[in-house]
Amino acid sequence: MKNISNELNEFFVECFNDILREEERALAKISRGKVSVKEVHLIEAIYKAQKQGDITLGNISKILNVSQGTLTVAVTALEKKGYVMRIQNPNDRRSYSLSCTKLGEHINELHINFHKDMIADVVKHLNVTQTEILANSLKKLHIFFKTRENKE
Question: From CA 152, how far away is CA 147, in angstroms rounded?
């Protein structure tokens, strides 16, 4: 069992690093190095917040699990690059919501397609049962991380 645990640990570490490296490579290619993985994930979080109907800095900081100060710095950088814009709340001038520009929407779409292609390439080598086993195993891994996150 110890050998399998070591193999799994090595696999997860290497796989995580490989995914990040490939995502960075793909983003560098499609954005000509103008946007980082973290910035694309912020753009993605803005889209998720739009679906929830709450695109405030507070909600997006919860989605990303970062402080509002950290988020403000990242938003400012993306705003300067033309990917997002802040919209001031007319009822409370201290409050802002976020929105993606057309450029931000384009980058988000390319990012979504990267993930779709990655998943399609993996599952094309698996049968239905193997795909279900993989999905269930990864769900359990996700639950492990969410449980740890909630304890802190």
Answer: 9
